[in-house]
Specification:
single chain; about 160 residues; disordered C terminus
Length: about 160
């Protein structure tokens, strides 16, 4: 976990609130992809390739575009810069959990929770945009999970998954 060197206290948003094994697969992937955004373009290219392999170029572009939009808007227009844990860290930070909840709740019929989370992360004017982008990202993740679930049940398949 990230800490400040001077005071040895935790950075806001980095405090552990859960562990990855307690999350749904959708939340797990959303947090993993969120963490990849902090690594840089090479990690995002690998994610894009994974989505393209399983879902096609159009869906991959839409999904990764939504992820990049969310990350950029939250980092540059949020109330504060979000933090993440290391890519393979087993605990989930508060910011990561908020991001996962924003994304997973965006596909519900009642989007009020997602809008509220968006307002807490940024200003009220930007929250609806975040929710629409989160919905596009969530739909891509859900489609990927549906395909991967089918692939992993098929013992004859040789397709591989790039994430942990």
């Amino acid at each position: 976990m990230k800490t400040t060197r001077e005071t040895n206290t935790q950075i806001k948003g980095g405090s552990p609130v859960a562990i990855m094994s307690d999350l749904s697969w959708e939340e797990h992937l959303v947090i993993y992809y969120f963490r990849c955004c902090f690594i840089g373009s090479e990690a995002l290219l690998e994610i894009h390739e994974e989505f393209r392999f399983y879902l096609g170029t159009e869906t991959a572009n839409k999904t990764i575009g939504a992820l990049q939009f969310l990350f950029t808007k939250l980092q540059n227009g949020g109330r504060r810069r979000l933090v993440s844990h290391d890519l393979n860290c087993k605990c989930v930070g508060a910011d990561e959990n908020c991001f996962a909840q924003l994304v997973t709740r965006s596909t519900y019929t009642d989007k009020n929770d997602a809008i509220l989370i968006g307002i807490l992360l940024t200003d009220a004017d930007l929250a609806p945009e975040l929710v629409y982008a989160a919905e596009d990202f969530a739909q891509g993740v859900q489609a990927l999970l549906k395909i991967i679930g089918e692939v992993t049940r098929d013992s004859k398949s040789e397709k591989k998954v790039l994430y942990n």
